[in-house]
Every structure is written in structure tokens, then in C-alpha cells.
Design brief:
Elements lengths: L4 H11 L6 H19 L7 H14 L6 H18 L17 H19 L2 H6 L5 H21 L10 E5 H6 L1 H13 L3 E5 L13 E4 L2 E6 L17 H8 L4 E6 L6 E2 L3 E5 L1 H5 L5 H12 L2 E5 L14 E5 L2 E4 L7 H12 L3 E4 L18 E2 L4 E5 L4 H12 L7 E5 L1 H4 L5 H4 E4 L7
Helix pairs in contact: 1-4, 2-3, 3-4, 5-7
Length: 437
């Protein structure tokens, strides 16, 4: 049964909750048909990633902007529609299949729709439907379809700090700074957050050398070769993450770029980085670097200017994701208004930006560090520096994260902040438990 393009379009627009311009839909429809007929081919295996990459590439070539999650939603609806009617796209190379849809098939399709709807609400009705003579196979198909849809949805959304449930710290932190380590561990214990020590590390800034968890079952590794440690005195502090990952049973997917984990701030559909990544990888053009990063994280990349006065070039000392399209920006304008304005200009093109501000007679040079908090699904740990800004930072974080009421704590960290990092730098937080359906 050939597919009516008008019905496909109607199905898409009936089930999306975001604006989709007519020109964007036409581009998606054209690319989808091209992929289906000329890439997959008649009788070929269908892979969502293949279709998504093909259509997304087509949109980018035409300079059409559409969030990855929204494109995934459109394509999922299109595939659902095709599966429900048992049809195929028109292909000029072959005659159309006959319309052999029988009464039994119609009844089975209706059962599939009912089961899919019921599975969203609960399992009781699904169990009742199992008694239907046509239902057993349809239940299996609907359940598998729902699981695949959930998997794709999670796959196309970056795992962010608010999803994490486990925190790791370097064994060196417990050895060299036992007081600070004990305070962090005690706070995590109070809020039921699992934590452990990483073996085989060379320093305690574990955010920078550990891989980035992009999805529940996917970690992205990279080349850890920081220029600020590449000298005879400090080279011994460069951790090789391979034995650390092996001890945890993690096999990261390699990304052949020089990076620091502190320069990767994850939002659901965007990775924020500073342009230091260009200087760290001079053998690649910025366009090539961007393409490699987009492929690795399956997200758009937003670059901030790299402040030449700041050798590390870490985005997690500048900005963090709050929720949705909101991000939090540190008090950069207290130190360099020109760079702050450019950073805000770039961020504002994609996000609603909220700035941390402190009403004090003189800004403390370490007050940037409040942005470098640790966030898990259960708690936010905020640095405390023993200065007037402490109370104001806490008040702002509590206001911005109302769902963390009673779950925000401050950790005395002045001595470590003077070394250039804070709580996000000192920790590696990941998710280990499967997401609930």
C-alpha cells in the first residue's frame, strides 16, 4: 500500500507540540523519501540512526535549523505511520504493491493503537487485551515499539547533571585534602548519593581526564594532553584514563581530539565549550573539529570565546545548565566585561541566560567558583569560600533550583579554589541506574 504524503503530514502535525514551518516540513519529507527510496532501498533494513543522519545532514546543507529532539520526534511519527498502515513510499523504479489490507489486518492495527495508548497509561488494560485472539503478537510489537521509542528519545537527549546518581573522586583528594574530601563524602551520604574513589589517577581534578557520559550506556573518551601540564615539572600529573576506565568496566568510544572534560558543559541538546579546543587541535580545521564533536555527542556545539588570561579554558568555570533552555552564567562581567558581553551574546542566541550577581563593595577574585558546583539528581554541593558572596550565591542557587529545596549544601573549599578548580572539577558524576519507563 503506497503512502499518501498528505496523511503523513497530517499525522505529524497532529502529534507534535512545537512549531514546524511548511518549508521545513517539505525539506524533511523530501529527504526522508530520498533516503527511503535511494539509500535504504526496496527491502532494505531500516535503521533510525541512518534515516536521522541523512535527513539532518540534508537540513544542515540547506541551512535549516531544527532541534535534534524535534527532528527525531517527526521521524518517529513518520515511521509509526508507515508501520501502522503497512505501506511503502512511492518508488519510480518499481510498481506499487497491491492494496491487500484485509479486515483482519485493520483489526490488528486498531489493536496495536489501543495497546500503545494503554501502555502509556498502565499495564492492566494491556493484560486484558492479551486475551484477544489477535492481541498476543500485537502486544509484543507494541511493547517493542514503545521500548525502541524510549531508547531513541533517551539516545537523542544528552544525559545531564540532574540525571546522575553516582559520584567518583580521585583517591588523591582523600589523601592530600582529607578534610575537604570528608565534607564532600558526608554531604553525599546525607542525601543518599553513591560515591567511590577512582584508582590509578595522577591528580584529583578527575573531571578533566574522565570520559563524558553522553547517554546511559555510552561514554565518549578523548585525548587528555593538557598544555598547562605539558612541562617537565607537571607532566607526572597527567592521568592516563585507560586503566581507570578498565577498573570500572567502562569502554569509552574514542574521540581523537585533545580535550579536557572541564571544557564540556552538557545541556539536553547542546554541548557548550570554549574555543580553546581549536588551539588544542591545530591539525584540524574548526569545521572538522565541530563535525567530530557533533558526531560524538549527537548534539549541537556552542562555542564561547577563550579568555587568554585563563589558561585552562574550561567552560564549567563559566556556565552551567539549569533546566530546559535556561543556563546560569558566572559573574564574568565583574572581571572582564568585554569577554562577558561576547559570551552572553553567543549564549543568548540559544538559551535564556541568568547571571550570578553579588552586591559587595569589592569582588573577590575567587567568586567565579560558585558556578563550579556539583549537581546530581539528589543534591547540589556549592563551594563556600568564607567571603560575603557565600550567602548570596546560596540564595541565588536556591531560587534557581526550587526542586532542590533542602538539598543544597555548601562545602568549605577555599584552599582548593585557589588552585583553580572547585567541586565540579573535583568530581566525576555519572548515571548507573536504568531510567524508569
Amino acid at each position: 500500500m503506497s503512502i499518501d504524503p498528505g496523511k503523513v503530514k497530517k499525522a505529524v502535525y497532529a502529534r507534535i507540540d512545537f512549531p514546524l514551518p511548511e518549508s521545513t516540513w517539505e525539506a524533511i519529507d523530501h529527504a526522508f523519501g530520498d533516503c527511503w527510496n535511494n539509500v535504504i532501498g526496496i527491502g532494505g533494513d531500516i535503521y533510525f540512526d541512518q534515516i536521522f543522519d541523512f535527513v539532518n545532514g540534508h537540513l544542515k546543507k540547506r541551512h535549516i535549523l531544527l532541534l535534534p529532539d524535534n527532528l527525531a520526534r517527526v521521524l518517529t511519527i513518520m515511521l509509526d505511520h508507515i508501520e501502522m498502515i503497512g505501506g511503502f513510499l512511492d518508488d519510480p523504479r518499481c510498481p506499487n504493491n497491491p492494496d491487500n489490507e484485509t479486515r483482519k489486518q485493520k483489526e490488528a492495527d486498531e489493536m496495536t493503537a489501543r495497546i500503545r495508548k494503554a501502555s502509556e497509561a498502565g499495564t492492566r488494560e494491556v493484560e486484558e487485551m492479551r486475551k484477544h485472539p489477535l492481541a498476543e503478537e500485537e502486544v509484543r510489537r507494541a511493547v517493542e515499539k514503545a521500548r525502541e521509542s524510549q531508547r531513541l528519545s533517551r539516545k537523542l537527549t544528552l544525559l545531564t547533571d540532574c540525571d546522575t546518581d553516582t559520584v567518583y573522586l580521585s583517591a588523591w583528594l582523600a589523601k592530600d585534602h582529607p578534610k575537604e574530601y570528608a565534607a564532600i563524602a558526608a554531604a553525599l551520604d546525607r542525601h543518599g548519593v553513591r560515591h567511590d574513589l577512582l584508582p590509578h589517577t595522577a591528580d584529583y581534578w578527575c573531571r578533566d581526564y574522565m570520559p563524558v557520559q553522553s547517554r546511559l550506556d555510552r561514554f565518549v573518551g578523548y585525548v587528555y594532553r593538557p598544555d598547562y601540564l605539558d612541562n617537565a615539572r607537571d607532566r607526572r600529573y597527567i592521568t592516563d584514563p585507560a586503566p581507570v576506565c578498565r577498573s570500572l568496566g567502562i569502554a569509552p568510544e574514542p574521540l581523537p581530539l585533545v580535550l579536557d572534560g572541564g571544557n564540556i558543559v552538557k545541556c539536553p541538546e547542546t554541548v557548550i565549550m570554549t574555543e580553546k579546543v581549536f588551539a588544542e587541535n591545530p591539525d584540524h580545521t574548526p569545521a572538522r573539529i565541530t563535525a567530530m564533536l557533533e558526531k560524538a555527542f549527537q548534539a549541537e556545539i556552542l562555542y564561547l570565546p577563550w579568555d587568554p588570561a585563563e589558561p585552562y579554558g574550561h567552560a564549567d568555570g563559566v556556565v552551567r545548565h539549569i533546566r530546559g533552555n535556561r543556563v546560569l552564567f558566572t559573574n564574568y562581567r565583574d572581571f572582564d566585561p568585554a569577554i562577558a558581553d561576547e559570551m552572553l551574546r553567543r549564549l543568548s542566541a540559544r538559551f535564556r541566560v541568568i547571571e550570578l550577581r553579588y552586591d559587595v563593595p569589592e569582588h573577590h577574585p575567587d567568586s567565579w567558583a560558585y558556578i563550579n558546583y556539583l549537581q546530581t539528581s539528589r543534591v547540589i554541593l556549592l563551594p563556600a569560600l568564607g567571603i560575603p558572596e557565600d550567602a548570596q550565591a546560596l540564595e541565588q542557587i536556591l531560587r534557581l533550583f526550587p526542586d532542590y529545596s533542602g538539598r543544597v549544601e555548601q562545602i568549605p573549599l577555599a584552599s582548593l579554589v585557589r588552585q583553580g578548580g572547585a567541586l565540579n572539577c573535583l568530581t566525576w558524576n555519572i548515571r548507573t541506574a536504568p531510567f524508569e519507563s
